[in-house]
């Protein structure tokens, strides 16, 4: 891994094409300590290879929330990097090594991610803010020109609207925003762009609630096994037998 400045960051945005999920790897170059955000089960092999090639020490695998559309890669990553800790918000009421609260930080080397609670898509959704590099990882709370749906997993349009306005749009204009998904090939946005051009979040709160309550989206195809699997961070040994078998079958089908 090459780097020019002791405080610099190595940053990788990785995509998974079936669920259109983005995974992020962040490395503090001074210490070579790293975190991964929202890894996906199907791409664990690829991500592990990259982590090894970069020669870094993976400290944490952070899930921005309990995903409903894909199985997290954190369980399989833990087998490959046994010292790594899984992280979820305590509000997710799930099993993880570390449970974070609003206002806490996750530290790797000289870098520090601030945890901001951004519920609404789910109760346990958080946004991770890396102030020194002017970046935030918004999970499904804020998507590029969109936002996470609010019709299951304790979703609430009013809560989401307030989360985005109070916790994400309150960041400086030039902060780059990285979502957990994009369905149109876009990769990154900024606070200023979303404050001006997000077709949902520029509406009034009442208009937003009305719009979100009438999206009528089909349920994610994998929700029935992805949610219970993600409630235990994708760790096979902690899954009930039916969930574990379904996860294994779905993985084998894709090989
Ligand atoms: N078709 C996909 C699910 C697509 C979907 O519902 N995406 C979620 C985020 S993952 S739960 C979402 O919030 N979308 C917002 C929107 O406006 O579409 C599947 O079957 O997995």
TrEMBL record:
Q: Which GO terms describe its biological process?
A: glutathione metabolic process; hydrogen sulfide metabolic process
| Segments forming domain Metallo-beta-lactamase | 20-181
One short Pfam name that applies is Lactamase_B
Reactions catalysed, semicolon-separated, are: S-sulfanylglutathione + O2 + H2O = sulfite + glutathione + 2 H(+)
Which cofactor is essential here? Fe(2+)
The record's annotation in InterPro entries points to:
Metallo-B-lactamas (IPR001279), Mito_Persulfide_Diox (IPR051682), POD-like_MBL-fold (IPR044528), RibonucZ/Hydroxyglut_hydro (IPR036866)
Q: Which UniProt keywords apply?
A: Acetylation, Dioxygenase, Iron, Metal-binding, Mitochondrion, Oxidoreductase, Transit peptide
Where can this protein be found? Mitochondrion
Q: GO terms for molecular function, please?
A: metal ion binding; sulfur dioxygenase activity
Read off the SMART domains from this record.
Lactamase_B
- UniProt entry tagged with the keyword Metal-binding: yes
What is the annotated quaternary arrangement, including any partners?
A: Homodimer. Monomer. Interacts with TST. May interact with RELA.
Similarity comment text for this entry: Belongs to the metallo-beta-lactamase superfamily. Glyoxalase II family.
Q: What is this protein called?
A: Persulfide dioxygenase ETHE1, mitochondrial
Q: Which organism is it from?
A: Plectus sambesii
């Amino acid at each position: 891994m090459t780097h020019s400045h002791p405080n610099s960051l190595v940053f990788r945005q990785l995509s998974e094409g079936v669920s259109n999920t983005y995974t992020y790897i962040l490395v503090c170059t001074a210490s070579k300590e790293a975190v991964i955000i929202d890894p996906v089960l199907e791409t664990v092999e690829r991500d592990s290879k990259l982590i090894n090639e970069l020669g870094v020490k993976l400290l944490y695998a952070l899930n921005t929330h309990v995903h409903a559309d894909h199985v997290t890669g954190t369980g399989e990553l833990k087998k490959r990097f046994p010292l790594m800790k899984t992280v979820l918000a305590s509000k997710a009421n799930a099993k993880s090594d570390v449970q974070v609260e609003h206002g806490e930080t996750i530290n790797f080397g000289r870098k520090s991610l601030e945890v901001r609670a951004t519920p609404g898509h789910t109760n346990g959704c958080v946004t991770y803010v890396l102030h020194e590099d002017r970046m935030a990882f918004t999970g499904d709370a804020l998507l590029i020109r969109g936002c996470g749906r609010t019709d299951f997993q304790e979703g609430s349009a009013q809560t989401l609207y307030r989360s985005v306005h109070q916790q994400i749009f309150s960041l400086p204009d030039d902060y780059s925003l990285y979502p957990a998904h994009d369905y149109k090939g876009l990769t990154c946005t900024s606070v200023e762009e979303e404050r001006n051009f997000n077709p949902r979040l520029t509406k009034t709160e009442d208009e937003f609630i009305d719009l979100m309550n009438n999206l009528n989206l089909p349920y994610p195809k994998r929700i029935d096994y992805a949610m219970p699997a993600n409630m235990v961070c994708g760790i096979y040994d902690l899954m009930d037998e039916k969930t574990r078998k379904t996860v294994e079958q779905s993985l084998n089908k894709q090989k």
